[in-house]
Amino acid sequence: MPRYTFRKAEHICLKTEIESLFSAGSTSMSAFPLRATYRKLTYDGRGPQVKVLLSVSKRHLHHAVDRNRAKRQIREAYRLQKHLLISSLPQDVAINVAFIWLADHPMPSKLVSSRMNQILQRIRQNVLQAAPQTKEEDAASAE
Hints:
single chain; 143 residues; alpha+beta; 41% helix
């Protein structure tokens, strides 16, 4: 039975994790109104296997009410569908993912949910096809 939670430990909060996520070696894909940027890491068994960052820019949604709604929609869509990604990950692979809002106006929750599903399926396929990146490769690509 999947757990439909999105706890604080699953959020990307550290500046170093954010910088490494957006540095060279990460992969990006879009399914309007979302863009996902992710980075594969080796998993040592501590903490969550998938960590997530949410971003809704003031450039796209000018009103705080709209930005907060978009973040709520992204969180809810991820929370309900994260088992699609987590259940298929190999034991030694961890993933950091950033979900970025692209639309200039609010979108229906049903659309956000369906696009989240598409993105998670594509990430799962890409991760299963490629070998995990080691911590030494992470350090080399960060330089």
